[in-house]
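Q: what sequence does this backbone want?
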């Protein structure tokens, strides 16, 4: 039996000769996105506000196809400085993968995370994805087109509480770039265990459809799908790579109808298509 992909399929999923920028690329999900793009043949630029860590990640991934750059996506000047550096080196940008800000995952699981700091970090992640999309998206639009993928952790908690905002932002950007040839979609990814901690990770593992939390590396194919021409008919959509059973999640953590968390859970199900 011939198990090789046909040229049509292999070309559709290929990122060969594409330049892919991964924002917040030094985080766990950002690294997996970078690996996915690299395995699909892309040249990858890892942008992160922790430049030293971004350099280490680029070195670990290896090869001249990977480089690192400083990027604070919440600042327009930082976005444009990295954009200029990428254009000087590569001459183009084809795909932007907006990884989530993962400051939460650096907090030891045995320590409590102050609620105010938690919300501030989640908000920063949203502003960063929006800022990077507008800056890099404008260049891609002027160059004839491109692709933006917003990556968010896939469980309904931490930071799924902001899931509704991700969906709204993705649809906003899709409409914003509607006539410019820039496709915008999002994916709910696997969640870094340290971002959850045992208090949430263990209960969620028991109620997920797979009876476990999906690992980050298990969703590389979905990232490549959204970044490549294989998904060229999708625009303003959200792909769910991992989720928990919404009704049991609400019961387990005591969420009531109408709470922010309940809205995020609803967003992860019927209203995402």
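A:
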């Amino acid at each position: 039996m011939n198990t090789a992909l046909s040229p049509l399929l292999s070309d559709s999923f290929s990122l060969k000769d594409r330049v892919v920028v991964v924002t917040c690329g030094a985080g766990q999900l950002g690294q997996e996105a970078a690996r996915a793009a690299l395995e699909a043949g892309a040249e990858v630029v890892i942008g992160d506000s922790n430049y030293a860590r971004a350099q280490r990640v680029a070195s670990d991934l290896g090869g001249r196809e990977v480089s690192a750059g400083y990027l604070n996506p919440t600042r327009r000047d930082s976005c444009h400085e990295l954009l200029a550096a990428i254009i000087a080196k590569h001459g183009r940008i084809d795909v932007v993968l907006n990884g989530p800000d993962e400051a939460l995952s650096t907090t030891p699981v045995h320590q409590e995370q102050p609620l105010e700091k938690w919300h501030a970090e989640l908000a920063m992640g949203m502003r960063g994805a929006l800022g990077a999309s507008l800056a890099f998206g404008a260049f891609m639009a002027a160059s004839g087109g491109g692709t933006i993928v917003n990556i968010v952790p896939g469980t309904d908690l931490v930071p799924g509480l902001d899931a509704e905002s991700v969906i709204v932002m993705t649809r906003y950007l899709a409409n914003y770039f509607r006539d410019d040839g820039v496709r915008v979609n999002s994916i709910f990814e696997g969640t870094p265990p340290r971002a959850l901690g045992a208090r949430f990770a263990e209960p969620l593992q028991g109620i997920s459809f797979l009876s476990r939390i999906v690992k980050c590396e298990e969703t590389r194919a979905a990232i490549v799908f959204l970044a490549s021409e294989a998904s060229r008919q999708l625009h303003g959509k959200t792909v769910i790579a991992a989720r928990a059973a919404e009704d049991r999640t609400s019961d387990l953590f005591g969420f009531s109808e109408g709470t922010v968390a309940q809205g995020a859970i609803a967003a992860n199900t019927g209203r995402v298509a």
